[in-house]
């Protein structure tokens, strides 16, 4: 009997030993949004365990009680229904599903990444007049570009924010879909080319935290990591000054060189950044002479204001010629020659294909 117990203990200890080196960073949040997400995960898991644990326990109890060697167990081969048992079996999961659905629905709306945060911590609402820190994020192959429009500089693979100040991320991608994720700060959010996504969060404790890509995006995916620093106001001001004291300038020409695929890129700092660069990346018009997607869509909608800014386009939209000169519902012309044709063909001189 001692050997089976020893094997059982070993089987129980082995998974714990393998997990000893793991950092349960999701369960150790440093920001209020991540904290609420962790609490939601714990609550949902505990709620589901109210069913899972009793079911697993009853399986073992029934297997032991009604084993073949137990001659004292009640044997009732004609039993097929119990109203009380059916009520317990169906009502308990139903109540749990209703509770879980209500909590999940509420949490999903309160923690919507596009929704500005209303508090920096529990019982600590965002003070009126506080301006969120805006960070423009571009997922490149295979590195992260962070632009701080409020301060006019940019960094690669290094991100920082002051403690207890709301952060507003605007995110996009240069080529393929990616996922921005700082587990201690907030849940991950996807970045997509030609689109802008948003994420609102706050960091509540100073520290050095890991950030990475959570969506496979090619050969350099495993090295697409960055550091996120939570700082006090003075430390963040010093960090801003250190970046602005650099020599590099992030303009469109520099960006076109930066977006070329590269792996395991060290931290880079740009003392200045083109204020319109992020919008140009979103609209796929960083290269000179390229038509921006938002201008193209406005042109397709017939907006004259968009056409003035597009090279080679007339200031006013050209009217579309109708298929015929008549309107729907009018009587047909007496002579087919009176019909305005789009092509050079005429009824008397048809064009053969």
From TrEMBL:
Cellular compartments per GO CC: plasma membrane
Molecular functions (GO terms): copper ion binding; cytochrome bo3 ubiquinol oxidase activity; cytochrome-c oxidase activity; oxidoreductase activity, acting on diphenols and related substances as donors, oxygen as acceptor
Disordered as annotated region, ranges: 303-353
One Pfam family here: COX_ARM
InterPro entries listed in its UniProt record: CcO_II, CcO_II-like_C, COX_ARM, Cupredoxin, CuRO_UO_II, Cyt_c_oxidase_su2_TM_dom, Cyt_c_oxidase_su2_TM_sf, Cyt_o_ubiquinol_oxidase_su2
UniProt membrane topology term: Multi-pass membrane protein
GO BP terms: ATP synthesis coupled electron transport
Domain of life (superkingdom): Bacteria
Compositional bias of kind Polar residues: 341-353
Broad class of the protein's primary localization: membrane
Subcellular location as annotated: Cell membrane
Cytochrome oxidase subunit II transmembrane region profile domain span: 18-115
Assigned keywords, A-Z: Cell membrane, Electron transport, Lipoprotein, Membrane, Oxidoreductase, Palmitate, Respiratory chain, Signal, Transmembrane, Transmembrane helix, Transport
Transmembrane segments: 6-28, 40-64, 84-105
UniProt record similarity statement: Belongs to the cytochrome c oxidase subunit 2 family.
PANTHER family attached to this UniProt entry: CYTOCHROME BO(3) UBIQUINOL OXIDASE SUBUNIT 2, CYTOCHROME C OXIDASE, SUBUNIT II
NCBIfam families per the UniProt record, alphabetical: CyoA
Annotated protein name in UniProt: Ubiquinol oxidase subunit 2
Native organism: Sphingomonas jinjuensis
